[in-house]
Specification:
This protein has 471 residues and is an alpha+beta fold. It contains 16 helices and 22 strands. The strands form 4 sheets. An 8-stranded mixed beta sheet has the order 10-11-9-8-5-6-7-14, sandwiched between helices.
Length: 471
Amino acid sequence: MLGNSQKIPEEFLDRMRKLFPEEEEWERFLASLSEKPKRGLRLNLQKLKKAEKAGFSFEKWKEAWKLEPLFPEKEEMDFPQREEMDFSENREYLVCEEQSGCRVEIGRDPYHEGGLYYIQDPSAMEVVSGMHIRPFDRCLDLCAAPGGKSLHMADRLDGHRGGFLLSNEYVGERARILSQNAERMGYSNLCVVNESPQNLAEKYPGFFSRILVDAPCSGEGMFRKSEEAVADWSPELVEKCVLRQKEILKEAFLMLREGGELAYSTCTFEEAENEGIRKWILEENPDYQFLGEKRLYFHHAKGEGQYYAYFKKAGQDLEEKKQRTEYSILKKNKSIFLYPAFLSVFQDLKLFRLGIRIFEEGKNGWEYSHGLSHALNLEEILPIVEEQRLEKKYKLLYGIYLTREDKRIEDYLYGNEIPIAEEELQVLLPGKMAEKSGMGILYCDGIPLGFGYYRNGRLRNYYPKGLRYRK
């Protein structure tokens, strides 16, 4: 949050002043620069539905945290060629942290660790909501890190209907963060890679039915949240970003199939990076139909600055084909991945994640990977996982279901061993007899947290050290 607008580069203010000729709105914009940014919370709807089957009450949690639907009703977007945004199932909420009184640090609680929600800028949530993603779409997020929009896309896809997402990030360290965020959410029809747009375009011409280019930009919409964005800004940076955006988009054009849709977004206010790019996209692609655009400013949005626009390519769109879901196995480096067979087209890329990482090689041999405990389709893939298990000890047997109020949940997240009564063990695989010891998954209100090894009334902690809470 900026203390006052004097910290903002004068040249930026001069540019913004031209966008707001009316004095009243200009003053509102200036005042908004010093307001505290609000945070949004986007549900993993697939994980929520599974947790509700185990007894989780979303309404109770919503009331306790004072969650407000970001889009309480379907919104007309003034996009004459566009269908209404899809808010048939609310995923997007505004977090009223000052009012909640829940004494929980948002993002440091069991539901976050279990992948029930992702913390995201409220304005950024609009982009994917308007993309008209269908359960069977072939999706590409070309500039995906840290993963907010990418995972929003994944939650709208259904792997059993052929839908998948290739989530790409060019910068290696950012791709690692993207992969870690994807692991929490548990989608098996998701592939995370570290590739250049050019290399992807060469391999997958006319392949994707939905493409998002959330382009690197001058970051003016992040000024309230990031001092670095303010310090880095310059007119020269804007010019460089425009060139880079065009380079990325040229590759995206090649990968969009007939009838497919392209979404372009930035978190800046610069016309050259927004409407200027929109104009250029249409000039470069006479067969593209412009579906609409929207700008979000600090003073009339619930989140930060954002711009987005949608385009549709002429031709026959992708149609759903009935298919049977089959799974494949890939052993790469020190990881073993299980993934829907239709993701095999990506297995030769620079992979960070392909479906679910089910095993990883540690000091004591092959162990269950933490991501397996979060898999949304665990019941479906567990028999396959057990067939692939290389180590005969530490068999995965149990689900252990505790409530949020139970102190053992917090103890587990701190990395401690916790007591578990024998009657609290539930067999994961139907028909399997319970044994006196074995691996288990600890759940908080039906939401998976991670592994532990049960023996003699104790659960040895297998929660990854890098994720554990610290006092």
